[in-house]
Amino acid sequence: MIKILAGGKKNKDWLAEACGEYEKRLRKPFDLTWQFVEESELDSKVLSLDRDNFVILLDERGKILSSPELSEKMADAFGSAKNIVFVVGGAFGHFSPEMQARADLILSFSKMVFPHQICRLILAEQIYRAQEIYLGHPYHHA
After folding, report:
1. What integer pLDDT is reported at residue 93 of this predicted model?
2. Which of 140, 120, 5 is CA-nearest to residue 72?
C-alpha cells in the first residue's frame, strides 16, 4: 500500500477531485491513502514510522528520476517494504536533517519549485503512471 503523508491542510475541493480521478484507477499494490497533518507534526510522524516502510520525501533538492525509474523503485520497494510512504511538505516544505536521514529516497519532480498542493496532484498522477508502466499498459508513451 502507498501512503501519502501531507503537511498542511486537506486537499482543496478542486484538488481532491483531480487527485480522485487518478486514485480511482489505482489497484493493489498501488492503491493509496492520504494522511494530512500539521506541517509542524511531519517530523514526528516520519521519524515514528516503522523501519520496514520505504520513505520517499518530495524535495526540490532531491534526485530527479524518470517515470520508468520511479516505477521500478516502487516495484522494488513493494518487494521488501511494508508500505511506501511519500512525504509532501506544507507551504514551507523543508525537511529536517533527521527526516532526510530517515528517507530511503529524496525525490524531486523538477528543478523548479511547485506549490505543495500542485505537488500532491503531480504525485497522484505519477503513482498512476508508475502502476501503468509496471503493468505494461500503454498510458506512458516514452
Report:
1. 67
2. 140
